[in-house]
């Protein structure tokens, strides 16, 4: 099925930052550690598009997803949904927007209420938004069919279903209010390979059927390439590279993206992962990064003096990506290199 | 490399008695692990790969678990005939285990230093205090911690998941095991950290010749460090061979289907291949081939006669009627 991607922005994220602080002391709170979970991140989601948000653990990808959902509040920055700045909406106004964006979490069994039947789980959002019980029940049954489950099993409890089936139930619940944006936070990471394929196929066909926009959070670049039109790569709270999924995957520009791809273990058995692992080995806890430098400098194989002095900004490349890396700055030395690279002379 | 395998399992049958009935978790599982070898056991949830791992040190709760038959020979021990008292002495030293959740296998109220010291006190009580201190350093260095002092002084919650898994490795190594059983050691970790942990496992194998059993559901992990691979489905070994051969030329239709359903390399826009149906209920498994109902190459014999493990080449075994010698197949037909 063909999807239509419009030019219109459904979601705009502008300069979002979030810092988590660990403090100690009962009366005089003293900050002992702070983590910049998300650092000045901006991007747009077009109507009908699937965008992948990729990074390792601690990259801030899930925090960002939660900020968009307003499950946590950002320190600064704005999120616009369909022309409305939702970060500053009062709770009652916000509530009206909630039905337009729904979320599917990683662990299907834990994101369903174990004490309620599947019917109750799927009906909950409908009841919350004023649908009558009988109508909600009918809708829940038809949603079971939509996600490929037998509606006769709707009065069972979540523990009676397998992981893949629970994820289908979670998807049915997310679809109940006909959302326009679905945030998928590692929706298949907890599932077996053969079940993964089923859920991913389901998500793709549902998207075409209901014209939804997806934000797909994942650590698996291969998956994201198959699933997503565009890919955003995050590392320690910063957006390091964005672009068309195939381009980001086949011609990664940022050294981090290249390392990240190299550590993805594939069946074709590229041995590069071990080299990267050996290099990363010494950098488990990178020394305090100079606030003024590039976040990846301590680990980067192409680190130059400038990388420790000033932070790189996202800039566009001829290949269509945007990348935050000093390698791509327009000095005369660099521009020749960039053109060679775009022409495929340098790998 | 000596020829004596470090582990031999033959005809292992394990079942669990549940209110719903007897779950036949393992059926006729036989394989061996040679000296200095990394053997990967791959399968989906419920395939019996973790039960296999736990059986090796008899770590299965009994009841509900029960060994119905077979033999496990670990070094010169006959595991299934050993008492709990005897087993306690060899756990850790004959074979050590690494689990999926590294933080869960470390005690949160002790520093890494005291955790390793405790292990040493138990397994090598003859060591002097200086030796113990040296050994702690050695264990932590072996798993790639250059700043071992800082790690030794930390509590598990102060370390990342990947560091905890490497600490768990260090603790396992403190017992000087002759076999390491790693049950999904990197499943809870992300790719970069996974690469580091696997790198360390491979180093241990290469430098010390430590044989490793690696339980995983990820063919990428199998490819990365496995030498031989065993594919399990519904409590049985379906295929066994070198990693190269099995991944390039899978023989069993299940292995073929499983490899096909990995999204790696799939063209966007294409529908991913998915195996039809669901795994069988092990309380009442299909009487003949357990994969028959989902198999694309199913024949009538597959639903009548249980396929036996056939050795198709040196070190290459498969449980499928497609590869059985015609004579044997005929014999079986006539028996029927």
Automatic annotation (TrEMBL), chain A:
Family stated for the protein in its record: Belongs to the ABC transporter superfamily.
Entry GO MF terms: ATP binding
Cross-referenced PANTHER family: D,D-DIPEPTIDE TRANSPORT ATP-BINDING PROTEIN DDPF-RELATED, TRANSPORT ATP-BINDING PROTEIN
Organism (species): Allohahella marinimesophila
CDD domains associated with the record: ABC_NikE_OppD_transporters
InterPro entries: AAA+_ATPase, ABC_transp_ATP-bind, ABC_transporter-like_ATP-bd, ABC_transporter-like_CS, P-loop_NTPase
The UniProt record lists the keyword Amino-acid biosynthesis: no
Top-level taxon in the UniProt lineage: Bacteria
Protein name, UniProt field: Dipeptide ABC transporter ATP-binding protein
Pfam families reported in the protein's UniProt record: ABC_tran (PF00005)
Record-annotated ABC transporter domain positions: 11-261
UniProt KW keywords: ATP-binding, Nucleotide-binding, Transport
SUPFAM superfamilies referenced in this protein's UniProt entry, alphabetically: P-loop containing nucleoside triphosphate hydrolases
From TrEMBL, chain B:
Membrane topology: Peripheral membrane protein
PROSITE patterns registered for this protein in UniProt: ABC_TRANSPORTER_1 (PS00211), ABC_TRANSPORTER_2 (PS50893)
A molecular function (GO) term: ATP binding
EC number, UniProt record: 7.4.2.9
Transmembrane regions: none
Matching InterPro entries: AAA+_ATPase, ABC_Ni/Peptide_Import, ABC_transporter-like_ATP-bd, ABC_transporter-like_CS, Oligopep_ABC_C, P-loop_NTPase
UniProt keyword terms in alphabetical order: ATP-binding, Cell membrane, Membrane, Nucleotide-binding, Transport
Keyword Heme: no
Major localization class: membrane
ABC transporter domain residues: 9-259
Record field: catalytic activity: a dipeptide(out) + ATP + H2O = a dipeptide(in) + ADP + phosphate + H(+)
Compartments where located: Cell inner membrane
Top-tier EC class: translocase
One Pfam family in the UniProt entry: oligo_HPY
Gene3D superfamilies hit by this protein: P-loop containing nucleotide triphosphate hydrolases
SUPFAM superfamilies: P-loop containing nucleoside triphosphate hydrolases (SSF52540)
Family classification: Belongs to the ABC transporter superfamily.
Protein name per its UniProtKB record: ABC-type dipeptide transporter
Higher taxonomy: Bacteria, Pseudomonadati, Pseudomonadota, Gammaproteobacteria, Oceanospirillales
């Amino acid at each position: 099925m063909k999807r239509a991607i419009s030019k219109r922005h459904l979601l705009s994220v502008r300069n979002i930052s979030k810092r988590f602080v660990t403090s100690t002391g009962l009366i005089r709170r003293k900050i002992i550690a702070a983590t910049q979970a998300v650092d000045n991140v901006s991007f747009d989601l077009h109507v009908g598009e699937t965008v992948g948000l990729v990074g390792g653990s601690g990259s801030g990808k899930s925090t960002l997803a939660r900020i968009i959902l307003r499950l946590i509040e950002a320190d600064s920055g704005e999120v616009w949904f369909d022309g409305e700045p939702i970060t500053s909406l009062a709770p009652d106004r916000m509530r009206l927007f909630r039905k337009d964006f729904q979320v599917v979490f990683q662990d299907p069994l834990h994101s369903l209420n174990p004490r309620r039947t599947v019917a109750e789980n799927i009906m909950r959002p409908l009841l919350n938004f004023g649908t009558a019980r009988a109508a909600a029940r009918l809708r829940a049954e038809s949603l079971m069919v939509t996600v490929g489950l037998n509606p006769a099993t709707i009065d069972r409890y979540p523990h009676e279903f397998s992981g893949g089936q629970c994820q289908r139930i979670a998807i049915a619940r997310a679809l109940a209010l006909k959302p326009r944006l679905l945030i998928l936070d590692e929706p298949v990471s907890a599932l077996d390979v053969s079940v993964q394929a089923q859920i991913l196929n389901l998500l793709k066909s549902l998207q075409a059927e209901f014209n939804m926009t997806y934000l797909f959070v994942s650590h698996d670049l291969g998956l994201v390439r198959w699933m997503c039109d565009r890919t955003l790569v995050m590392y320690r709270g910063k957006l390091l590279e964005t672009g068309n999924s195939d381009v980001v995957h086949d011609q990664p520009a940022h050294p981090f993206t290249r390392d990240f791809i190299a550590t993805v273990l594939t069946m074709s058995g590229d041995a590069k992962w071990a080299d990267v692992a050996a290099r990363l080995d010494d950098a488990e806890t990178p020394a305090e990064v100079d606030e003024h430098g590039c976040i990846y400098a301590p680990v980067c194989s192409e680190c130059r003096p400038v990388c420790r002095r000033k932070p790189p900004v996202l800039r566009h490349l001829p290949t269509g990506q945007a990348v935050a890396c000093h390698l791509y700055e327009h000095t005369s030395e660099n521009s020749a290199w960039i053109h060679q690279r775009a022409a495929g002379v340098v790998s | 490399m000596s020829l004596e395998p470090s582990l031999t399992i033959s005809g292992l049958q394990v079942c669990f008695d549940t209110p719903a009935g007897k779950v036949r978790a393992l059926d006729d599982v036989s394989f061996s692990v040679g000296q200095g070898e990394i053997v990967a056991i791959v399968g989906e949830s419920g395939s019996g790969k973790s039960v296999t791992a736990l059986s090796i040190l008899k770590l299965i709760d009994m009841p509900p678990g029960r060994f119905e038959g077979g033999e496990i020979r670990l070094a010169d021990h006959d595991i299934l005939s050993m008492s709990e008292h005897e087993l306690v002495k060899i756990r850790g030293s004959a074979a050590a285990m690494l689990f999926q959740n590294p933080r869960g296998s470390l005690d949160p109220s002790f520093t890494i230093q005291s955790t390793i010291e405790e292990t040493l006190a138990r397994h090598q009580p003859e060591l002097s205090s200086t030796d113990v201190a040296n050994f702690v350093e050695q264990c932590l260095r072996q798993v790639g911690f250059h700043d071992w002092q800082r790690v030794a002084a930390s509590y598990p919650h102060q370390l990342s998941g990947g560091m905890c898994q490497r600490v768990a490795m260090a603790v396992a190594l403190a017992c000087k095991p002759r076999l390491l059983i790693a049950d999904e050691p990197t499943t809870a970790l992300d790719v970069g950290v996974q690469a580091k942990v696997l790198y360390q496992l491979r180093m241990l194998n290469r430098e010390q010749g430590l044989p490793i059993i690696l339980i995983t559901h990820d063919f990428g992990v199998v490819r990365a460090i496995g030498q031989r691979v065993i594919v399990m489905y519904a409590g049985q070994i379906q295929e066994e061979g070198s990693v190269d051969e099995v991944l390039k030329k899978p023989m069993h239709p299940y292995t073929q289907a499983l490899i096909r359903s990995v999204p790696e390399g799939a063209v966007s826009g294409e529908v991913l291949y998915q195996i039809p149906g669901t795994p069988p209920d092990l309380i009442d498994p299909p009487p003949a081939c357990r994969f028959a109902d989902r198999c694309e190459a199913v024949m009538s014999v597959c639903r009548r006669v249980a396929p036996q493990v056939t050795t198709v080449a040196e070190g290459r075994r498969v449980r499928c009627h497609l590869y059985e010698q015609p004579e044997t197949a005929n014999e079986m037909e006539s028996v029927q």
